[in-house]
Amino acid sequence: MILAIDIETFSDVDLKKCGVFKYVQSPAFEILLIAYQYDDGPVEIIDLAAINDLGPDPDEIEKLDRLRADLLDPKIIKTAYNPQFEITCLSKEFAPGLDPKQWRCTQVRAAMLGLPFGLDFVAKVLKLPVQKMSGWQHIRYFCIPCKPTAANGMRTRN
Fold it and tell me: Which of 42, 60, 117, 141 is the most exposed place for a label (fewest CB within 10 A)?
């Protein structure tokens, strides 16, 4: 079985300047969304931000428990595009003890096929029916602190 996974996170530390380890060590770090897919099944999304804000939903907690167990199961191959990020983030907050040997990097596989390194470019070259959102608008809006202003009520986070 193959488990493909992608996460969206928040931290007040600049990932590009400081790297993933300092990024996840921030007290403000949190995993917002976990998108995952088993083999060729449907993509599932767990909204951890909503669970934290609204309280646990029994169905979401059941999905989380299964996902956590499967992330730790050595019989299940995990894949991600540059999985060091997922492994580091998930190990910090969600599933300590992840074994990097159980992961496969789809970015490396794309490069071995002569495809570009950027996921958005891979989707374009392969003419996939679903394209990665271009730009950083959503990441900048939800995953990076904003400057407090009178217009946004002095908040530092969207």
Answer: 42
pTM of the model: 0.79
- Computed on alpha carbons and rounded to an integer, the radius of gyration of the chain in Å comes to 17
The three state secondary structure string of 39-84 is CCCCCEEEEHHHHHHHCCCHHHHHHHHHHHHHHHCCCCEEEECCHH
Of 141, 150, 144, which is closest to residue 28 (Cα–Cα)? 144
Task: Read off the tokens for 111.
Answer: 């490069």
CA-wise closest residue to 67 among 33, 94, 31, 40 = 94
